Structure formats: C-alpha cells, structure tokens
Amino acid sequence: MPPAGILVDGLVQSCIYMTMAFGMVLVFSILGILNWTHGQFYMLGAFVVYYAVTAAGIPFPISILISGGVIGGLGMLVGRYVIERVNVPGLGLLYVTAATVALNFFFEGGAGMAFGLEDKGLYNALPGVLDLGSFSVSYQKIAVVIFTLVIMVAMYVVLNFTKIGLAIRAAAQEPGAASLYGVSVGRLSIIVMGIGCALAGMAGAIMAPVYGVNPFIGGLPLIMALLAIIIGGIGSLTGAIVGGLILGLFSSIVPYYLGYISELALFLTVITLLIVRPQGLFGVPIRR
Amino acid sequence: MKKSYNIVAILVTTLILSVLIATACGPKTPAEPVSTGPITINIGVCAAMSGPAASYGQLGQETVDTFLQVFNRQGFKVSNQTYNFNVITADDQANSEGGSAAAKKLVYEDGCKFIVGHWTPNFKAVQAVTNPAKVIFFSHTGADAVPGPGGYDPKTMPYVAFPVAAHEVVVAYIFGIAEVNPNYKKIGIIDTVLNKGIGWDNADKQMDEKGIRYFHQFTQPNTANYAPFITKCAEEGCDFIFTSDVAAALAIVKQRWDMGYKDMRICCAGPITSPARWIQLAGYDAVQGLIVSSGAVWEARNRPLNADQIAMLQETMGLLADKHNGSFTYTGWIPWTPTQLFILSQAMQKAGTVDDTDALMKVIRGGTFDLPTGQYAFSGAQTYGSPVVMMTGIIECQIQGDKEVYYSQYHLPPLP
To answer: Which of A228, B20, B53, B255 is the most exposed place for a label (fewest CB within 10 A)?
Structure first.
C-alpha cells in the first residue's frame, strides 16, 4: 500500500483531470468535437488568476470565478467564430481538429509574448500546510479537492435540475429531436463551449499556486484529460469523472513504485484498455 | 612612310614603358598613415532565446553584451594588432533542429569561426555543422557530449573543446555538500531520464569510490509533480536532494515544503536568476537554505585570483545593476561565454593568429589558461584522440534571507 501522502497527492491530481475531462466531454457531447485548445484554456485561466491576484489585488477565491468567466467567454468566442465556421458537413471534424490544434500553438506563443516566458508563482495564495501526522498537505491542495467537489456538485445540479441542463442533456442525446422541442442547438453549443472552457480555466486557476504559471503548462493537462476520457469512455460524463480519478491516482502511485517508466506503464494500460474495451469503462459499446 | 610610322610607334611604346618602370622603381613619397584601431572578431553563441529556457538565454545575451563593453575597452593584442570581440547570438530553441539552424546561420551567414558559451542539449547537432567548417566549438560535457559512446569523439571532432565539464562538475557539487556536511545521512539525486546514461554512470562510479551515500532517481522530462520522488527520498532517509535541473529544483523546493519535509535541503547544479524571484515563486521559508551554483568567482577561497579579470567581471556586474534598478545578483553567466572569451583571446595570443583554427586548436589542446580563479589546463596533451576537457571547479552558495551567501567550493583534478 503506498503511503497516505501519495494517495492524497493522487487525489489532488485526480481532481484536476476530472475537471478537465468533464469540460472536454461536455463539449464533445454537444458539438461532437474534441477541443485541442482545452489545455491552453487551463494555462490562460492560470494567468488570469495570477494577474487578478497580484496586479488587481482581488482575493484568490473570487479570482478563480473571474478566471472561469473570462476563459468561458473566450471559449464562447472560439466556438462561435472558429469552430462553428469550420465545422462543415463532411470534413468538419478534420477542419475543427486543424483549427483547434493551430489555436493551441497560437495561445501558447501568444501567452509567451504577452506574459513572458518566466515562471510566475502564487505561493502566498492560501499558504501553509496541515500536519496530519505521517504527512502534511498544503492548504492549496486541500482547496483543489474542495473546489472540485463544489464544481461537480454544481454541474450535477445544473445538468439535472435546471432547464438549461435539461436542454443540454436533450441535445446531447438527440439534437434533432431537441431542436423540434424548441432547443436552439446552435446557441446551446456556444454556451456549452463556454462552460467547458470555463471549467478548464478554473482548473488552471486553482492549480496556479500549486505548480506555478508559465505558457507551457497546458500540454500535460490536455493529454491527461484525453486519456481520462479514453479510460472513462468518450461521451460519458460519469466516465470522465471516473477516468480522471483513476488517472490521477495512477499518476501518483505508479511513479512512486516505477519511477520514470511510469508513463510507459500508463500508456500500455490505456492501449490495453482500448483493445479490450474500446468504448472505455462507461462509453457506449462500439459495434464493428 | 610606313617605315616612319613604325619608328614613331616604337619610340612612343619605349617612352611609355620607361615612364612606367621609372615610376615603379623610383623613390616613393611616404604613404598616409593607416588607422590601427581594433579589429572586431565575430563570435557565435547558440542559446535558447525562445521556449521554456529563454530567460537564461536572454539574460546571457544581456550580460555578455555588457561584459564586452568592458572587455573591448582594452581588447587584446595579437602581433601588435588590437582585437575586439563581437558576440552574435542565434536562437537554437534548445533542440537539435534549432541548434543546427542556429549554427548554420552563425557559420555561413555571419562568418563566425568560433562558437562559444554553449549550454543547451544539442551538442551533436551543432558540432555536425561546426566541425566540417573547421569552426572551433566550445561546449559543455553532458548527456550528449561524453567522451566515447556518449556522443563526443575527439578524433572525428577535432575542433571541439569543453571549457565547462558540466557533467563531471556535477559530482563536485555533491562532493562539496558532503565536505561541508560530514554528518549528512544521504543525498537524494533526482534528474530527468534524458540525462541518464554514461555521464551519470561515471558520476555514480566516482561517488561510490568516494563513499558518498546517495539514492538516485530519474523522472520523465517536464515532470510537474515531484511528490512521489520526494516521498521516496524521505523514505530512504535523504536529508539532501540534489538535482541538476533548475526548473526541477524550483518545483522540488516548493513541493517538499508543502509536503512537510521542511528539514530536507535542496541543492541545484544550476544558478538561479535571483533569490528574490525564487522567494516570489516558492515562498520565503521554502527557499531558505537552498544551495545553488554560483559564478561569483571573486568569492573563491584558497585560489590565486586573477585580479584583472575579476575587476572586469565585477565592473560588468556594476553596470548590470545600474540597468536593473540597482540590484543584479545573477552570476551564472560568468563561467560561460565571458570565461571562454578569456580562453579564446589567450589562445589567439599564444598561437599568433585569430583565424587559423588548426593552429588555435593546437594551442588549446593541452594548453594552460589564466582564468579568474587561477590557471587551468585542457586535457588532451598535444595529440589528437584524447578528450579536450577543462576541469575547473564549482562554487556553491546558499540562500539566506534574500541573498546568496558563500557555502562551499570544490575543485576537480585535471584530466590527463
């Protein structure tokens, strides 16, 4: 059994991968596309919270919400003016992939030029550690877990008990039927894009004090979110949560035992899962 | 009539030839005096000016440009002619493709016969351009530039020399820590798997021979979460963690503090840009006691210091402080381009040439040079086939408050 500190660390990693994966699956369920810019929204969210706290003096918790709002708005703009325009019948998936990959590099390079390449830190946002006997955990990491719980509960409430949540679930299941019932699927797509990107932005914001901020922090969360989706099942929100949980624990426990070959073990596991159960844990079975 | 024309032609031709010969052989009036101002030699530097390591590349360019303002005031003389250096920096993006492109630009567009101060991990790509062009390339030893199977072959790379034995010097940091802390328990070593190979195998062997207690772990590149590795070090009883990567050191400094391992001291083989920045990034308390590399050569103890060179370096630090609101503490630039320009200028003086790279390499290989902390020699004697490496030493400092304070130094014996 790994030490308790490793399990807690794994839980913190899980929280971020869950949040990122949830946002990606939400977008996928309505738009049918994988947003390759998702990692850069994480990065930009971290920069928003950094400048909100250090330059504007806004308290950290409120800065996280601001980060969500700003990045959600940016996501809506990307959805409206980029994805909607290139998502044409036939080759839409290819065009959207190309566009979002290009935006991925654009945002990374743009952030480097706008904010500089040096690391930035928010160590004094929620400083201090909680001593739990055999290990300690920082208040920043505790905040990550609390934030994720709040977000997941909020998303559960929105998706299951609000009109917009009902519309989202309807459009995800049957967009044609949903539009017959008066759901504006096009407008809903933009809103969902905003929500998904806001989740990524807030994930970056809550992690900014833990690992620091620079233009290159978006790559790893994107890859891990994708892997979480594959493990959980593309299109399944429950799968995104479970996949994120498994991946986070894996990424903390396996390096503890295997060191640098943990990534090899991770990818072998994912490949094996794809062969044995290609739809993931909670996805719809694929009929050949 | 025709006969008279021939006579006239002969007479005119003879007259013209006579005048020409008289002009050539006659007394000359003194020529106007020719300007004897310094001649500028272009020196190339391949450095990361973009990407995650860009801050060091950009800082390196600024420090070298300022150093040259001081160095070129006097310049150096070769055969009664004064020379200055002009450093041209090309962005190598810290990768092989960028290194190759940068080297080609410096060699073929800028006409550089020397590339110095190289610190990025693309040795093979750069030397593949410089060696065929007979361009002298000063680099650092490391994972891709270790003699033998490690990528450096002195026989096929005769224009390469290593004024910075970066990998050999890694053990010097560890030996320095052990010397200052004789009762240490164990030193945890965390490094990226990119550096795994002959370099670390050699280092491990040296540490075993010296009886150093250590625990070695490798991580994937771009690792952000060091918690598993820090936990392992704690379980192994490590009271020090050493890493050769500055980015890793920054992450480990903070994460080990957050995990409650406040007594675990962190040591980094690289220099930091400034204690104030690290305090801002990782927190004041977490950074206290951090041990890092220092280029503050004037602090070297028990070494015959070169007063002139140190004066130049300290004047440069003063000019940099003026540019940075009165405070500039980064000394990591000193062991690289400026020190290597000292070596190059002395090599040119000894060889009596500024552009015959064969003659210069003959002087460099096995040659002894005056550096800020005394005299050091390149290995390789005078023959091809053995590595040309200069074993200097390291100075470590520790962070106390917001300052870097001298901690230890260690000098390695020269290679044969």
So the answer is: B20
Residue A223's pLDDT is 93
Q: Inspect the interface and report whether the beta carbons of B231 and A263 lie closer than 8 Å.
A: no
Q: In chain B, what percentage of residues exceed pLDDT 90?
A: 62
Identify whether residues B97 and B75 lie together within a single domain: yes
Whether residues B93 and B230 fall in one domain: no
DSSP string, chain A: ---HHHHHHHHHHHHHHHHHHHHHHHHHHHH----TTHHHHHHHHHHHHHHHHHTS---HHHHHHHHHHHHHHHHHHHIIIIIHHH--TTTHHHHHHHHHHHHHHHHHHHHHHHH-SS-B--TTSS--EEE-SS-EEEHHHHHHHHHHHHHHHHHHHHHHHSHHHHHHHHHHH-HHHHHHTT--HHHHHHHHHHHHHHHHHHHHHHHHHHH-B-TTTTHHHHHHHHHHHHHH-TT-HHHHHHHHHHHHHHHHHHHHHHGGGHHHHHHHHHHHHHHH-TTTTTSPPPP-
Read off the pLDDT of residues A69-120 as tens digits, 9 standing for 90 and up: 999 999 999 999 999 888 888 888 889 999 999 999 999 999 999 998 888 9
| B379 residue type, one letter | S
**In this predicted structure, what is the pLDDT of residue A192?**
93
Selected residues 192-251 of chain B with any CB under 8 Å from a CB in chain A = 193, 196, 217-220, 222, 224-225, 227-229, 231-232, 235, 247, 250-251
Nearest beta carbon to residue B231 from set A118, A217, A256 = A256
Contacts with A119 from chain B: Cβ below 8 Å: 247, 250, 281
Please report residues of A whose CB lies closer than 8 A to that of B217.
Answer: 259-260
Taking CB atoms and an 8 Å limit, are A255 and B219 in contact across chains? yes
Rounded to whole angstroms, the Cα distance separating B65 from B362 reads 29
pLDDT at A66: 97
User: In which residue are the tokens 């140190």 written?
Assistant: B310
In a domain, B7, yes or no: no
Report the distance separating Cα B256 and Cα B258, nearest Å: 5
Query: Residue ranges per domain, chain A?
Result: 15-216
pLDDT reading at B254 higher than 90: yes
Residues B141 and B218 in one domain: no
pTM of the model: 0.85
For residue A69, give both structure tokens.
């709002």
| Position B231 in a domain | yes
**Residue B72 and residue B40: Cα distance in Å, rounded?**
9
Is A211–B227 a contact, with Cβ atoms under 8 angstroms apart?
A: no
A120 interface with B at CB cutoff 8 Å: yes
Number of folded domains that form chain B? 2
- Judge if B238 and B281 occupy the same domain: yes
- Asked if A15 is an interface residue toward chain B (Cβ–Cβ < 8 A), one would say no
Residues of B in contact with A139 (CB under 8 A): none
Query: What is the spatial order of strands in the sheet that B76-78 belongs to?
Result: B76-78, B81-91, B39-47, B114-115, B136-140, B160-164
C-alpha B111/C-alpha B218 separation (Å) is 41
Please state the separation of Cα A118 from the chain's center in Å.
Answer: 24
Residue B106: phi, psi to the nearest 5? -65, -40
Cβ atoms of A206 and A147 closer than 8 Å: yes
Look up the CATH number of the domain holding residue B235. Answer: 3.40.50.2300
Provide the residue range defining the domain that includes B125: 39-167+301-393
Give the pLDDT score at B32.
45
